[in-house]
């Protein structure tokens, strides 16, 4: 029975079979270890790619924030310029209104407190004051309306080539809709 043969069956020593199986298992394990290393490498590549994508997104967010801050700064500058003009117009009108109110109140006070003879005596002087006021027609105070629109803020993107992702385009469209109803003027836009 230990000669390795038995009625059409071949027997092998247990150590030999064990060593052969261990060798095969080790070979498979080596292949799996190699596969494991490849998967770790691929995982690290994906992790690097995740970081690159996140950094690219953060860069775009910084660019948009900077562009929006620049737009706001330019809008504030335009507002300041418009308000300076309007405050000048307002100040001139306010001074004229105060002057006219003082004149009207002074004449009314005279009418209420001064004698009839004095009113008759001061009549030419009072009419001269009125004539002086009428020499400056109200059309000289006609203020030129300051337009309420502002220069489109998207034009402050100074790049000749701007690349927008779809979400950035949606944000631009939203900003554009809020700021105005006119076209966004950018030299070239590509959607990726």
UniProtKB/TrEMBL annotation:
Keywords: Coiled coil
Recorded coiled-coil stretches: 54-117
Transmembrane segment boundaries: none
Single GO MF descriptor: ubiquitin protein ligase activity
UniProt-listed GO biological process terms: aggresome assembly; protein autoubiquitination; protein monoubiquitination
GO terms for cellular component: aggresome; peroxisomal membrane
Highest taxon in the source lineage: Eukaryota
PANTHER family given in the database record: E3 UBIQUITIN-PROTEIN LIGASE TRIM37
Name of this protein: Uncharacterized protein
């Amino acid at each position: 029975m230990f000669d390795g043969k038995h009625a059409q069956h071949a027997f092998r020593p247990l150590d030999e079979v064990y060593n052969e199986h261990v060798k095969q298992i080790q070979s498979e394990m080596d292949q799996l270890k190699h596969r494991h290393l490849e998967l770790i490498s691929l995982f690290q590549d994906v992790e690097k790619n995740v970081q690159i994508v996140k950094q690219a997104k953060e860069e775009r967010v910084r660019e948009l924030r900077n562009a929006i801050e620049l737009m706001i700064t330019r809008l504030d500058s335009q507002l300041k310029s418009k308000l300076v003009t309007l405050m000048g117009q307002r100040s001139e009108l306010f001074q004229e209104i105060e002057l006219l109110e003082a004149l009207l109140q002074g004449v009314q006070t005279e009418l209420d407190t001064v004698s009839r003879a004095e009113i008759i005596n001061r009549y030419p002087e009072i009419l001269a004051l009125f004539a002086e006021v009428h020499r400056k027609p109200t059309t000289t105070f006609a203020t030129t309306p300051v337009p309420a629109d502002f220069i489109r803020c998207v034009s402050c993107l100074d790049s000749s080539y701007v690349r927008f992702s779809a979400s950035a385009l949606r944000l631009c469209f939203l900003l554009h809709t809020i700021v105005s109803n006119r076209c966004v003027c950018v030299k070239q836009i590509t959607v990726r």
